[in-house]
């Protein structure tokens, strides 16, 4: 199928690419649904509506592969925008992991919080249905409600000395 061919052509890990275009992710984060935006959610190209920008799915797969996120680790996304990458990361980090986003735009930060909450609820509902139907559920793909968060701030205003002593992240994406 088209996704697998694209994945092979770009020499990426198919499972990461498939996660990046999964309806649970893409349709949750694409604003203002219409037939056209639903089609755009599955295209391998960037999407922009107003202040919300979502990169092409292959870019997220490439970034996630390079970050090599492992279950239980911590991730900081500076300039988290729509929150899409942070939620993808949270999915890979699992229940014991932490994914934090810092975003300077109040609008984008609010959007991220709203969509992450919606995405988390959908994820848990899908998991319940899958388990009820006796289907396999990917290990590490359960996310604690507090495992992902966003803060509206300017990364240049961070008290670096305080942060160095209190917070440590396994991976940081800027």
- What is the averaged pLDDT score? 77
Radius of gyration, in angstroms, nearest whole number: 16 Å
Proportion of beta-strand residues: 5-15%
Structural class call reads: alpha/beta
Which regions have little confidence, pLDDT < 50, spanning 5+ residues? Answer: 2-14
Overall morphology: globular
DSSP summary: helix tally: 8
Helix-strand pattern: HHHHEEHEHEHEHE
Largest sheet: 4 strands, parallel
Biggest sheet, strands in spatial order?
5-4-3-6
Helical content stands at 40-55%
User: How far do the termini sit from each other?
Assistant: 33 Å
Total strand segments = 6
Structure notes:
With 174 residues, the protein is of the alpha/beta class. The protein is 49% helix and 14% strand. The protein is built from 8 helices and 6 strands. The protein has helices at residues 2-9, 14-21, 23-29, 35-41, 57-67, 84-93, 106-132, 160-166; strands at residues 47-49, 52-54, 74-78, 98-103, 148-152, 171-173. The strands form 2 sheets. A 4-stranded parallel sheet has the order 5-4-3-6, covered by helices on one side. α2 (14-21) packs across α5 (57-67) and α3 runs antiparallel to α7. The chain is globular, with a radius of gyration of 16 Å. It starts with a helix and ends with a strand. The relative contact order is 0.15.
